[in-house]
Design brief:
By secondary structure, the protein is mainly β. It contains 3 helices and 32 strands.
Length: 395
Amino acid sequence: MKLSRLVWLITSCCALLVGWYIWGYFFDTSVPQIDVVGLVEGNYYSGDVPCLLKANKNGILSIVLDGKLLPSGYITKGKSREYSFILPTTSLANGNHTVELTFTDNTFHHTSKKVACNFISDNIPLHASLVGVDSSKISQGHTLHIQFQTNKPIKIAKVQALCHEYPCVPESVGSSLYECFIPIACEEQPNAYIASIEINDHVNNTLHLDYTFHVVEYPFKRQTIRIDQEKVKSEQDAWPSEKEFEALLAHLVCKSPSEKKWRGAFCAPTEIQRISCEFGTLRTTQHKGRYAHKALDIINLPHSVVWAPQDGVVVVKDRFAASGNTVVLDHGCGVFSLLFHLEDFADIHVGDMVAQGNPLGIIGKTGYATGVHLHWEHRVDNIPVDPMEWTKASF
């Protein structure tokens, strides 16, 4: 009796299994679910790339590479339902390619799922060389401009110098000439330093270049001026402080896009009749004591137009106690133009993209100004540098 029940139980289970298999084989019309591991749309690859296809059914995989069918008929079996295959980029030309994977299940309806992936083959060794390095000497308060040429597009490059890291960017869209702007603070000690350049391509090849430069002492001038203390007091009572302005600027520098918004040389933001205070001048006032004036004070006729020294985005249009009516432009890569003491603003708004020469306002004497002039400041990574250097075609 027990044996009969056991036979009945085994027979019933077998019948259920056969029925389940027959039902699945004839009536399953669901699209297979597949996942491809090792291939990412738009990625760069080199060598023989191991890939894996995972499916929720058993079936057959076919592979078409650039329109040509690779040896196919790969069958996924067993519980894992996985198939490993190699993408042979070493046999491909360097550049863009497309691989199409078609998985067909083994049901009566042979339902299939197809995915395509565009990728870039890159088996070119990475090479790079420094460009335009005429002199290794750079003065305090200036900008070290490093350029290098690569033999192919790269993923990222950065420079370690003066205990900081600086990004490298293409000179223009699609260019193989990359550049980096390293600010040399007025207080930087004269000495020899090394700029270490690390370059990484899209397939994880790494290249290092070293550049030795010498910071030399600059003979900054000296100046003593008197500021109307009553005006200072009235400005302090009415407008945000210099400390608040610096905090805002530090925040904006962190958000500066890592791409150039400009091409070519900068220009002076107004006609220069005279420079009343040169960059880096050691100034003495009864209000601030002795400090370095890290900007140019430009004298021009009252009501003269102030324009954008280069293409950039307006990130500040506001009034502050020290700088008065202020406009700040972000040129990308942490490069900023600061224009102070405007009498009035042009029709611009924060977020506007302005072109070189577009009006920003009128020259004036708002804020801690002793007379009508334009305070023109240039910062790289929030470090003030000589703006006139950036107006040279050779820079």
